Amino acid sequence: MPEGVIVSTTETIAGHRTVATLGQVFGVVVRSRGIGGNIAAGLRSIVGGEIKEYTALVEETRRHAIDRLIQNATLMGGNAVVMMRFDSGSIGETMNEVVAYGTAVIIEPET
Description:
The protein is 33% helix and 41% strand. It has helices at residues 35-47, 52-75; strands at residues 6-7, 16-32, 80-91, 95-109.
């Protein structure tokens, strides 16, 4: 993650002002758990409770999506992303898509 890039779910960032709005920015990741993880998760779902294999997969995928979001914002010349959100969905029965999206902006500290 580039140093100094701020990602926020809010419209503004405390102590900063937005000097330029660069546009929409996305970070998309599609992942599939291997056969072993699917079997373990399937067995765990029989008894109920948290399916740790999928929780770990989703957490890792969200982190990866944010990293891509930051990379794309940086390529656009931004030093922050505001209004960041996640969206996710399934592709087929074995794949999960996670999208981190927001607005790339240039901010500077308020004086």
